[in-house]
Amino acid sequence: MKTSGRVVFGLMLWVAGISVASAQLSFVGRFGNIGSAESLFIMPTGVSLDKHGNVYVADSGNDRVQRFTATGGFIMAWGSSGDAGGSFDGPYGIAVDAPRNILYVTDRGNNRVQKFTTDGAFLNAWGSLGSGEVEFDGPSGITVDRGGRIYIADTNNHRIHKMDGAGNFILDWGSNGSGQGQFESPMGLAVDRDNNIYVADTGNDRIQKFTKSGQFLMSFGMTGSGSGRFDEPTGIAVDEGGNIYVVDQNDRIQKFDSEGNFIAKAGGSGSGTLQFDTPTAVAVNEAVDIYVADSANNRIQILTGFVIPPGMSGSFADPDFLGQGINIEILSPQVVDKAGKGIAPGTALVYWYSFDDRGFPFFSFGVGEFAGNIITARMLWDAQGPFFGPDWNPDLFFAGNFADVIITARGCDDVSFRFDPFDNFRFPAHPMEMERLTSLVGVPCVITKADTVATDEAIPQRKSLEDKGFAITRGLSGSFFDPDFLGQGINIEILSDQVPGTAAKGGSPGLVLLYWYSFGPLGRPFFSFGVGEYSGDTMVVDMLFDMDGLGPFFGPDWDASLFIPVPFATVTIVWSGCNAGTMSFVVDNEIDHLFEAHLMAMERATSVVGLGCP
Questions:
Q1: Where does the pLDDT of residue 409 fall: very low under 50, low under 70, confident under 90, or very high at 90 and above?
Q2: Residue 181 region, left (φ>0) first, then alpha (ψ -120 to 50), else beta?
Q3: N or C, which end of the chain has less CB nearby within 10 Å?
Q4: Which of 235, 197, 187 is nearest to 219 (CA)?
Q5: Are the beta carbons of 604 and 331 closer than 8 angstroms?
Q6: Which residues make Cβ contacts (< 8 Å) with residue 325, sequence separation at least 6?
Q7: Do residues 114 and 107 touch, judged by C-beta distance below 8 A?
Q8: Could you give the CA distance from residue 83 to residue 208 in angstroms, rounded to a whole number?
């Protein structure tokens, strides 16, 4: 139903204050406790990850290896005390050769390396006590390069030992000392994407970097407890961006850039959240989830080094709380200096679509700040009755406090949502683990380049850039509505940039994801979505919706397992700028009698609080 009138009201914005400095290492979770049963540990010393996100732990005091899901769910364990193949005497380091589904473990008390499948099947073992080829004295850290070659920190021999995947000796380097290429009881190893080797030179309180052939490249660090200093560094990892993570006996983790410049740190002595007692190893995945073997606390702690980027804007939902979701719109980025200290937080707009205790739909919204990977905001709603719909009247809108929310991003597709409502009786607090809605169409949050269109014809420009003066960019992402069609709106997420020109000359359209929240002919809410293309100032998207025999309506009882996407409409939006555009649509022939086509003049929803596009 069409409702006339424009939104004319003032809103008081409340911005939650959060700490900005050193926000680049944040706590996500932990698992484990002391014991010998499944999921328990006695002095876990090694941790490694496979390509599926599984976590492998060298449970040293229990002489076994345990395997978990990414969140700490137990999968399996193998090993026992002894010196037979598959048995251990103090397993210390662990490394997954992900492309080959192989796992290597340094069996420290037996002075050997053992090789397994990632399912725990024993394959081989090499080594004995000594200082010759394929001999070890207290081996600890281990890593695998992209070619499947393994590197062992031969701690008491003060050297690095390199072998192939069959256990054949390749080379070793190092001797006892403090010069370049010398070591004092090295314990931690890591490899970067270029097969450079990083060594936690434990007794020298420094990190050394080498080529895969053992040629010295650089070192950083010195004795101390200040930023960039170490007290017996034991574990090291390198992420895909070249950032370096080190744990030491200052009971903390530090993050450095690829040149060894300090970025951030977290930790302190203790057993609480983000406290450590003798951390010994660290592993990191592509999403910058960081796993620390918190050895004397008998647990694994999970951190994140993820920093919310401008591309975080988008829509998210929790499959366990269907019929509701949030939209995040990054209004301004956070500013972080080279040392990783926050200079200024970013600003984000959050919309929350949900249902009250009677099943009526409503929305709340708020502008808050973010630093590191955390957004905080106070959400406002219509305190006279927070329900939207075809007859919702903005002239009666009264902004009241609804809830304080904390959104923790573990990556740009994955967030946790916590809220503290002002009316906990009608809206009891519960945590939500949310996924980006692009998962419905199999599209992740970051696409660096659109697929090239297989044609030599120029990509159509509905209105030339010279005539229009505007071209769609990633900054268009956000939420929009037409004041003359209240109670509905769209969310736009730019997935990839457009490249002007013909395909033969490298040109390609950009990709866009569009969500449309509206109401059916009986006033029931529904949504449709689609992935389409844009070029110049115009985007065209074929929309889908759920037609399962009951209609395309969502709500508290909406069942995702019954979701059957069918064509709904073709939407065309011509943008005059990043705050305004004209939307038209042609409904599919099968249902065009249910939905009357009309033009909509869309405005960015941030206009209701006096904010423009980023």
A1: confident
A2: left
A3: N
A4: 197
A5: no
A6: 315, 316, 317, 318, 352, 353, 434, 437
A7: yes
A8: 33
| Contacting residues for 538 by C-beta, under 8 A, at least 6 apart | 461, 462, 463, 472, 572, 573, 574, 575
Structure token pair of residue 561: 């397992």
Task: Quote the tokens at residue 225.
Answer: 């407890």
Q: How is residue 16 written in tokens?
A: 């939650």
User: Which of these, 225, 216, 136, lies nearest to 183 by C-alpha position?
Assistant: 216
| Residues β-bridged to residue 342 | 336
Angle at 80 between CA 76 and CA 81, to 5 degrees: 155
Tell me the average pLDDT of the chain.
82
Tokens of 516: 């449309």
CA distance 377 to 261: 33
Interior/surface letters 127-156, b for 16+ CB within 10 angstroms, e for the rest = beeeeeebbbbbbbbbbbbeeebbbbbbbb
How confident is the model over 160-165, as a mean pLDDT?
97
Q: Is the Cα torsion angle 430, 431, 437, 440 positive or negative in sign?
A: negative
The rounded Cα 448 to chain-centroid distance in angstroms is 16
Cα–Cα distance, 23 to 26 (Å, whole number): 7
570 by DSSP, 3-state: which?
strand
pLDDT digits 0-9 by tens, 74-95: 999 999 999 999 999 999 999 9
Q: Are 182 and 165 in contact (CB under 8 A)?
A: no
CB 34 within 8 A of CB 297: no
* DSSP state at residue 384: T
Phi, psi of 267 (to 5 degrees): 125, -165
Q: How far does Cα 27 stand from its chain's mean position?
A: 13
Tell me the per-residue pLDDT of 36-51, one tens digit each, with 9 for 90 and over: 999 999 999 999 999 9
Which residues share a beta bridge with 161? Answer: 152, 172
pLDDT bracket for residue 444 (50, 70, 90): low
The least confident of 249-258, 333-342, 572-581 is 333-342
Closest Cα partner for 604 from 484, 483, 514, 515?
483
The Cα 581–Cα 574 span in angstroms is 5
Q: What single letter denotes the amino acid at residue 106?
A: T
Nearest to 4 by CA among 580, 363, 516, 393: 393
**DSSP labels for 34-65?**
BSSSTT-BSSEEEEEE-TT--EEEEEGGGTEE
By the 10 Å C-beta count (0-12 exposed, 13-18 middle, 19+ buried), 5 is classed as exposed
Contact between 331 and 347 under an 8 Å Cβ cutoff? The reply is: yes
- Among positive and negative, which fits the CA dihedral 462, 611, 342, 15? negative
Name the residue with tokens 């926050």.
342
Q: What is the pLDDT of residue 450?
A: 28
Strands (E), 166-277: 169-173, 188-191, 197-201, 206-210, 216-220, 235-238, 244-248, 252-256, 262-267
Rounded-to-integer distance, Cα 353 and Cα 443, Å: 22
Task: For residue 463, give Cα distances in angstroms to 384, 446, 470, 480, 540.
Answer: 44, 28, 9, 22, 14
- Contact in structure between 158 and 184 (CB atoms under 8 Å): yes
In order, the DSSP letters of 412-454 are: TTEEEEEEEES-TTTS----EEEEEGGGGGT--S--SSPPPPS
Contact 463, 536 (CB under 8 A): yes
SS3 232: coil
